[in-house]
Every structure is written in C-alpha cells, then in structure tokens.
C-alpha cells in the first residue's frame, strides 16, 4: 500500500540547477496543472535541500507534514502530482521495518519546452482556457528579429581571449558530477501491442492503416485522461470511420475519453477474482481495497457479489460527476452510509456526507475514513483507534500477498468484530 508515515525518513537530492526563473515557472505554469499544494511541496523540498549543512542529512516526514500543515494523504497526492509532471522522482528502500526515501528534484521545463509539449499545453488550456494560456505564453516571448539596416559588430571568443590550444591546460580532464539544467521525463506507458491486439480481435480494422501521427494522438489522449489501452481501443473502434478521410475524428474521441473520466465506474475493466494487498493490518487491507476497487465492484463485493441496483449506481455516479471524488473516497462514503443506515444506500445521506468531505477537501480513502471516524465517534468513545494511527503503526511487507474472495469476506467480518467501521 502506498502511504506516508510520519516516521518514514527521506533525503533530498538535486538533479538539476533550479534558478529563480524556474521558481516563477513552477508558480505560473505548473501550478494550474498540479495545484498549489504540490507547488508548495516542491519549493519546500528545494528550500530544505538548500538549507542543509551537508549532503548526508535526512529528514522525517513528520517534519514535512508540520511544515506543510497537511494530512499524509494529501501530501502523498501532491507528491504524485510532482512525479507525474517530471519534477520529482521517488526511490524507496525498506529494511528492518523502516522505510527510507530518496526524493530527486528536477528543474521544470523551460517556457519554450513547456508550450511546445502537446501534453502540457493541452492541460494548461483545459485548466485556464486558451485565451489565458496565450497571454501567459506572451510573457516569455523574445524578439530575435533585428532590422536589416543593423549590422552585427560583436567580438568573437577568439578575438577576446586568443587561446593557445597547444597549451596543456586545454587537455586536462576534470572528473566531477556537475549539475546542469535537466528536466525530468514524463512517464507515458502506452502498450501498442495490447492496443492493436484488442482492435484486431474485436473489429475488422486493419491496424496498419493508422498513421504514426494518429497513433501519437491516441497515446496523448490516453495519457491526458488516464485511460488504458483497452479503453482507448474500444473508443477508437466505435469512432472509426472507414469510409471517410481521416478515419479518426479526434474531437469525438476526446469527448468519449471525457465521459470515461466523468464516470470512472463504467470503464470496461474486468474485475479479478483475487485482489493484491500489502500490509498486515485488517484496516490497512480494507483501505487498500477501497483505493483499488471501482465503486460498482465495491458495492457488489459488499452484497456478496450480487447484481447492484441501478439506483445505487446512479448514486455513486453522482458522487463522481458532482463532487469529482476518487474511487477510494466514493467507496468510503458508501461503506460508511451502509454501516450507519441499516445497509440502505440513501442518496440524501450520501450527499450530506459528500458535502462535508468536499468542504474538508478530502481526496483519499484514508483521509475520508479519518474524517468519518472522527464525526462518528466524537468524544463518546475511547475504545476505537483513529484510522491514521492504525495506518502509521502498521508496517507494510515489501512483497504483496494474494487473497481470495473468501478471504476478503473474512477481512470484512474481522473488521466488524474489531469495531473498525
């Protein structure tokens, strides 16, 4: 399970020079994409590194949580945002029950690289609109055109220094790792083999008919909307126009991709008979399942793998479209409401809880469970343990263990006996 404990330690390394102009780029260009918390996290890590007395200093996440004044769940979300845009790479080593991170910071793209990148430019237009994006781009415009009546008279390097290349100084080799201006690469993992295989199996489309630029656009849209190869193949098959040129209408494909984002539980992903979980705590395993399971499958799991009522699917659909919650948060809401409302999924009850979580800006299942646990218990009981404390005290195993559907039911029954809901 991917989580951050205050006890985990980390060190910071710099992979690139970061100038004051780069910091402006973070705020002006990257912040609309990754949010203010991720921007603050980047600048905080950079400042911590600059303040180090030596390169061997390590920090605890407790210090970082104190500096940023956010929950561990939101901090993890911010870290993922930095990783997604190539500003941060994270490395983890686990030994003797301890977790040691290395955070490698990269410089942002130059303004030219940013606006030349179709992914970043497209995300910016989506975030702030085309007009505002063009206005920002104008901030970084340079005028390189010199009127013809002007003649360059600049001195050359040789004119000024007149170097003697036979001198031994020019043959010296200085072995050192000098930091330059290096931007981190954005990871886009799109498997064309899976994409083509699904198209060939489920349609009469000849895959060789796709142009290279069309495939690049398919890959771009998949990365932009976070869709897998099968989902993109389904969309392309439906939108393919064999009697027209071009064969693909990417405006229509983009709209279909947006629908997948609005209704994540409708994506065509086959549920596995077994779930992968890590960690040795009952509650940790349940939260892990919440994060990894679609809302439709979660409801199905809670009712012994029977068909979910369409009215219940409408409720989770509204939680996704109206509030923009992740699957993990939606699952936490429905799980809580069913527990408190005699296994009846009330739309009004769900919306009331959702409004509270939205005001709290909850984004992860662990933070949703923390909040719901707090409002449920109040000050009446001291026997229950807050979700966060269980999360922090439970050390996940390095490898994952596989559990069956029957074992998952045992998790829920054991969880009920422990009073975890």
Describe this structure in words.
The chain is globular and about 90 Å long. It has helices at residues 20-34, 36-50, 61-68, 72-84, 111-116, 118-128, 130-139, 157-161, 192-202, 212-225, 229-239, 250-262, 282-292, 295-302, 310-323, 327-340, 347-359, 365-377, 387-393, 405-417, and strands spanning 9-14, 59-60, 88-95, 98-105, 275-277, 401-403. α15 (310-323) runs parallel beside α17 (347-359). The strands form two sheets. The chain has a four-stranded mixed sheet. The protein has a two-stranded antiparallel sheet with strand order 5-6. Residues 262-280, 379-403 and 415-421 have low confidence and may be disordered. By secondary structure, it is α+β, with helices and mostly antiparallel strands.
Separation, N- and C-terminal Cα atoms:
20 Å
How does the overall form come out from the CA principal axes? globular
Estimated share of beta-strand residues: 5-15%
- Profile the largest sheet: 4 strands, mixed
Read across the widest sheet, the strand sequence of neighbours is 2-1-4-3
Structural class, by secondary structure, is: alpha+beta
Pick out the low-confidence regions. 262-280, 379-403, 415-421
Mean pLDDT: 77
What is the H/E string? Answer: EHHEHHEEHHHHHHHHEHHHHHHHEH
How helical, in percent, are the residues?
Answer: 40-55%
Number of helices: 20
Question: Nearest-angstrom radius of gyration?
Answer: 26 Å
Number of strands: 6
At a glance:
With 421 residues, the chain is α+β, with helices and mostly antiparallel strands. It contains 20 helices and 6 strands. The strands form 2 sheets. It has a 4-stranded mixed sheet with strand order 2-1-4-3. Strands 5-6 form a two-stranded antiparallel sheet.
């Amino acid at each position: 399970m991917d989580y951050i404990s205050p006890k985990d330690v980390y060190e910071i390394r710099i992979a690139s020079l970061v100038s004051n102009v780069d910091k402006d780029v973070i705020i002006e260009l990257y912040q609309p994409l990754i949010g203010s918390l991720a921007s603050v996290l980047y600048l905080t890590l950079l400042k911590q590194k600059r303040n180090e007395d030596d390169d061997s200093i390590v920090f605890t996440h407790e210090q970082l949580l104190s500096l940023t004044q956010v929950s561990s769940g939101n901090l993890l979300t911010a870290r993922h945002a930095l990783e997604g845009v190539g500003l941060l790479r994270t490395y983890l080593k686990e030994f003797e029950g301890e977790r040691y991170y290395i955070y490698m910071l990269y410089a942002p793209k130059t303004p030219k690289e940013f606006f030349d990148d179709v992914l970043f430019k497209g995300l910016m237009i989506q975030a702030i609109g085309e007009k505002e994006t063009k206005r920002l781009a104008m901030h970084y415009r340079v005028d390189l055109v010199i009127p013809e009546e002007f003649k360059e008279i600049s001195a050359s390097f040789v004119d000024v220094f007149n170097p003697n290349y036979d001198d031994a100084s020019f043959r010296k080799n200085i072995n050192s790792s000098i930091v330059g201006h290096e931007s981190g690469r954005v990871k886009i993992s799109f498997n064309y083999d899976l994409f083509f295989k699904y198209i060939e199996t489920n349609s009469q489309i000849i895959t060789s008919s796709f142009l290279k630029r069309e495939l690049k656009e398919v890959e771009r849209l998949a990365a932009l909307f976070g869709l897998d190869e099968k989902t993109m193949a389904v969309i392309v098959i439906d939108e393919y126009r064999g009697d027209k040129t071009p064969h693909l209408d990417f405006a229509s494909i983009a709209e279909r991709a947006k629908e997948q984002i609005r209704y994540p539980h409708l994506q065509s992903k086959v549920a596995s008979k077994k779930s992968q979980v890590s960690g040795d705590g009952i509650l940790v395993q349940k939260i892990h399942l919440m994060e990894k399971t679609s809302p439709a499958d979660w409801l199905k799991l809670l009712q012994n793998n029977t068909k979910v009522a369409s009215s219940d699917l409408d409720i989770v659909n509204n939680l996704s479209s109206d509030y923009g919650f992740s699957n993990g948060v939606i699952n936490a809401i429905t799980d809580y409401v069913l527990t408190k409302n005699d296994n009846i999924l009330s739309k009004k009850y769900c919306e009331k809880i959702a409004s509270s979580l939205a005001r709290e800006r909850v984004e992860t299942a662990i933070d949703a469970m923390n909040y719901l646990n707090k409002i449920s218990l109040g000050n009446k009981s001291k026997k229950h343990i807050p979700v966060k404390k269980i999360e922090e005290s439970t050390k996940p195993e390095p490898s994952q263990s596989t559990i069956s559907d029957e074992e998952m039911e045992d998790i829920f029954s054991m969880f009920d006996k422990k009073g975890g809901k």
